[in-house]
Specification:
Elements lengths: L3 E5 L4 H12 L4 E5 H4 L3 H8 L8 E4 L2 E4 L1 H14 L1
Parallel strand pairs: 1-2
Antiparallel strand pairs: 1-3, 3-4
């Protein structure tokens, strides 16, 4: 299964929750702290391929998932397909 990439920032509860949820399910997760990496919103927009208004921004491989609210049903859909 492809790795998940989570673009987030310090102090973001949804970013932490997304990372913990993926890890709790044993899924590969690459958490990228936007501030630590010096990434601007514009740079993340280029990486995810759409406007960035909030974090986290989550990708599954090359597939855009969305934020935490979209991650939960996305994972349920993956589990039911397995």
């Amino acid at each position: 299964m492809s790795e998940f990439t989570v673009f987030g920032r310090p102090g973001c509860g949804y970013c932490v929750a997304a990372k913990r949820l993926l890890e709790s399910k044993g899924l590969d997760c690459n958490y990228i702290d936007m501030y630590e990496e010096g990434l601007s919103k514009a740079e993340v927009e280029q990486m995810v391929g759409r406007p960035v208004h909030t974090v986290p921004q989550i990708l599954h491989g090359e597939t855009y998932v969305g934020g935490y609210s979209e991650l939960v049903p996305y994972l349920k859909k993956l589990e039911s397909a397995a």
